[in-house]
Amino acid sequence: MMKTITKIKNSKALLTLVWVLGILVIWEIFAFIIQATKRTPENIMPHVWQIFYSFIDPKPVSNGMSCLQVVLFNAGQTLSRAGQGFMIGTLIG
Questions:
Q1: Does residue 50 sit within a domain?
Q2: Which of 11, 20, 60, 66 has its CA 20 to 30 A from that of 74?
Q3: Separation CA 36–CA 14 (nearest Å)
């Protein structure tokens, strides 16, 4: 039992999880502070749940595509260009 606890305590995954949760907590604290300041727009620092919701929101944001569709389309374009660059580099060098 003690070995398992020590193993979990020393794992890199736990350290990463603690860092990610810490960053999310700090983000939310600043989002609440900005939301309480009525002079600044809320979209400067949205809450984490608003960011995640924007990915599944079907409302069009650009050219009739949802946010998730825009992200996936641009990711496809990026991968395509990276593949083309890799092929050109392979052929030349």
A1: no
A2: 20
A3: 33
For residue 26, the enclosing domain spans: 1-45
**Sign of the alpha-carbon dihedral angle for 62, 65, 71, 73:** negative
| Residue 52, in any domain of the structure | no
pLDDT computed for residue 92 by the predictor: 96
Cα–Cα distance, 11 to 76 (Å, whole number):
34
Instruction: Say yes or no: 41 and 66 in one domain.
Output: no
Structure tokens at 42: 């809320």
Q: What per-residue confidence (pLDDT) applies to 42? A: 66
Q: Which residues of the chain have pLDDT under 50?
A: none
Question: Would you tell me the crossing angle of helices 48-56 and 67-92 to the nearest 10 degrees?
Answer: 80
